[in-house]
Automatic annotation (TrEMBL):
<dbReference type="Pfam" id="PF05670">
    <property type="entry name" value="NFACT-R_1"/>
</dbReference>
<comment type="subunit">
    <text>Associates with stalled 50S ribosomal subunits. Binds to RqcP.</text>
</comment>
<keyword id="KW-0820">tRNA-binding</keyword>
<protein>
    <recommendedName>
        <fullName>Rqc2 homolog RqcH</fullName>
    </recommendedName>
</protein>
<dbReference type="InterPro" id="IPR051608">
    <property type="entry name" value="RQC_Subunit_NEMF"/>
</dbReference>
<keyword id="KW-0699">rRNA-binding</keyword>
<feature type="domain" description="NFACT RNA-binding">
    <location>
        <begin position="452"/>
        <end position="548"/>
    </location>
</feature>
<comment type="similarity">
    <text>Belongs to the NEMF family.</text>
</comment>
<dbReference type="InterPro" id="IPR043682">
    <property type="entry name" value="RqcH_bacterial"/>
</dbReference>
<keyword id="KW-0694">RNA-binding</keyword>
<keyword id="KW-0648">Protein biosynthesis</keyword>
<dbReference type="InterPro" id="IPR008532">
    <property type="entry name" value="NFACT_RNA-bd"/>
</dbReference>
<comment type="function">
    <text>Key component of the ribosome quality control system (RQC), a ribosome-associated complex that mediates the extraction of incompletely synthesized nascent chains from stalled ribosomes and their subsequent degradation. RqcH recruits Ala-charged tRNA, and with RqcP directs the elongation of stalled nascent chains on 50S ribosomal subunits, leading to non-templated C-terminal alanine extensions (Ala tail). The Ala tail promotes nascent chain degradation. May add between 1 and at least 8 Ala residues. Binds to stalled 50S ribosomal subunits.</text>
</comment>
<keyword id="KW-0175">Coiled coil</keyword>
<feature type="compositionally biased region" description="Basic residues">
    <location>
        <begin position="439"/>
        <end position="448"/>
    </location>
</feature>
<feature type="region of interest" description="Disordered">
    <location>
        <begin position="429"/>
        <end position="449"/>
    </location>
</feature>
<dbReference type="Pfam" id="PF05833">
    <property type="entry name" value="NFACT_N"/>
</dbReference>
């Protein structure tokens, strides 16, 4: 299901119950198109996410942690100016459209009470978050500025007059008399799929899944009008459910629509369901946006090193022909009396190959002995290059493995993990450090972020490094020598530490599952995970951050499970 008008109706009801009467305590904009208002209501601080992301636009309470930028944006500063300490007086929906109004009362600089409205328009790439003065409908600011060159119908710029999105000439299904035309539609369109299309063209705010669910409900025994009313009443008391079809497609509904061939997972709230549904999708999108420079640098370095490796392999292959040059040099030296200056080639019996004739090219500009020496020089040069090329190939392969590891870490990273990866690339000289202090000539010392903490079923503490800097600090500095270290076998992944010298078998399996989940094998099954005491871990001198070697390990085979890992995190 999409975040359509009907789902928006259910979400507005949920947010009204939880937030109305609360006070805005914090305002942050951790991502370009997303703002989070922390509202203190009913003795709880609830982070309200308003996302104008082109793909994942939505409004919900979120429990997913985020990291704020060092410098707040202009939109954040404007929001803080007007909404800090404001009271949320109402949450409403414009008709059955994907437009939500959050109404606030606050005090201006003179101490006078003012009414403000924060509007989120959930409209794919046209999504926006807009703050207006409700009395005059003046736009105070928007998360996306829209000029007349982008939209002729309305502009969304500070100081302008807010105009509602174009109205649709459709019926709001939540209006009391909305069911009047239902019986005729059911009679005229007995096919459920066709009826669903007609319902979408008749009623406002119905996504494809909602329309199909309604068409199915209308075909159930009983009066279609009553079935219609019952269907939409269920949006007032949602039973959030995540559904997965037999084709592997996953969606969310405000309540079960009675779809066939699906598996479902229930949630306590719409917001909790959206957190679960969007966590990986939205995180990937945020990482792609915020880590675009890192991704570009790593891809370029990988391409450069893979090209270098191909050239080295070609050079090594050509060295295989070195003995041919030695043989030709020895033949020329042996039969030097038969070679005269000015020859361009000569055919001599090859005593290394049963006296078979071998034609040797010559330069007519040099003497016979110089021609022989020329072949010996080529032989010696190629032989000398083998050692160098092998050394360079080993270094290049190590560099490719390292960059592959960084690439995997970016894929698995949450936005808050990108700062450490960026710092590592700067330290390695892959990325220019723009934070260099020009005046003192010294770089600011940066603290490595803390690893993720999990709690095993028996209460044992488990820590997970999400990048090389965290891995190194965790394994080589924080962990006790008797702790247990885990890592997915022969594949990029996180260092995992069990803070116990003798963990239970269950704790080992749980920690191994975490290690497999935070690795390149996340989507695999039966993943091999090595485990060993920390005292058996060594870091060779001069190696890259996070690189260690170990011996005496044992191996477990586990299958990564996101929900299982989330439960262990929640126990912390």
């Amino acid at each position: 299901m999409s975040f359509d008008g009907a789902f928006t109706h259910a979400m507005v009801g949920e947010l009204s119950q939880q937030l109305v009467g609360g006070r805005v305590s914090k305002i942050n904009q951790p991502y370009n198109n997303e703002v989070i208002l922390t509202i203190r209501a009913n003795r709880k601080s609830l982070p309200l996410l308003l996302s104008a992301n082109p793909t994942f636009a939505r409004i919900q309470i979120t429990a997913i942690p985020y990291v704020n930028p060092v410098t707040p944006t202009n939109f954040t500063m404007m929001m803080r100016k007007y909404l800090s300490g404001a009271i949320l007086t109402g949450v409403s929906q414009a008709e059955n459209d994907r437009v939500v109004h959050l109404d606030f009362t606050s005090r201006n600089e003179l101490g006078d009470q003012v009414t403000l409205r924060l509007i989120i328009e959930i409209m794919a790439r046209h999504s926006n978050v807009i703050l207006i003065d409700l009395a005059s409908s003046t736009i105070l600011d928007t998360i996306k500025h829209v000029g007349s060159d982008q939209n002729r119908y309305r502009t969304l710029l500070p100081g302008g007059h807010y105009i509602n999105p174009p109205a649709q000439d459709l019926i709001n299904p939540f209006e009391p008399d909305a069911s009047q035309v239902v019986s005729a539609l059911v009679r005229d369109y007995p096919n459920e799929d066709v009826l669903a299309q007609k319902l979408r063209h008749t009623y406002q705010g119905l996504g494809q899944d909602t329309a199909l669910g309604l068409a199915k409900a209308l075909h159930q025994p009983g009066d279609p009008t009553d079935n219609f009313k019952t269907f939409f009443q269920r949006f007032n008391t949602p039973e959030p459910v995540l559904v997965t079809t037999d084709k592997g497609k996953t969606g969310f509904n405000a309540f079960p629509y009675g779809q066939e061939h699906v598996t479902s997972k229930s949630f306590d709230s719409l917001s909790a369901m959206l957190d679960f549904y969007y966590q990986d999708r939205a995180e990937r999108d945020r990482v792609q946006q915020q880590g675009s420079t890192l991704i570009h640098v790593v891809r370029n370095e990988l391409k450069k090193n893979r090209t270098k490796l191909k050239k080295l392999q070609a050079t090594l292959k050509s060295a295989d022909d070195a003995d041919e040059y030695r043989v030709k040099g020895e033949l020329l030296t042996t039969y030097l009396a038969q070679v005269t200056r000015g020859m361009t080639s000569i055919t001599l019996p090859n005593f290394y190959d049963d006296e078979k004739p071998l034609t040797i090219s010559l330069s007519n500009q040099i003497s016979p002995s110089q021609n022989a020496q020329k072949y010996f020089k080529k032989y010696n040069k190629l032989k000398a290059s083998v050692s160098y090329v092998n050394d360079q190939m080993a270094k290049t392969n190590a560099e490719i493995d390292y960059l592959d590891n960084i690439s995997s870490q970016i894929e698995l990273a949450a936005p808050k993990d990108l700062a450490d990866i960026k710092a590592e690339l700067q330290q390695g000289g892959y990325l220019r450090d723009h934070e260099h202090n020009q005046r003192s000539g010294k770089k600011k010392r940066r603290q490595v972020s803390k690893p993720e903490i999990f709690t095993a079923s028996d209460g044992t503490k488990i820590e997970v490094g999400k990048n090389n800097l965290q891995n190194e600090k965790l394994t080589l500095h924080s962990a006790a020598k008797t702790d247990i270290w885990l890592h997915v076998k022969n594949m990029p992944g996180s260092h995992v530490i069990i803070h116990d010298a003798d963990p239970s078998e269950q704790t080992l399996v749980e920690a191994a599952t975490i290690a497999a989940y935070y690795s390149k094998a996340r989507q695999s099954s039966s993943v091999p995970v090595d485990y060993v005491q920390v005292k058996k871990i060594r870091k060779p001198n001069g190696t890259k951050p996070g690189y260690v070697i170990y011996e005496g390990q044992k191996t477990l085979f586990v299958t990564p499970d996101r929900e299982f890992v989330a439960r262990l995190s929640a126990q912390e």
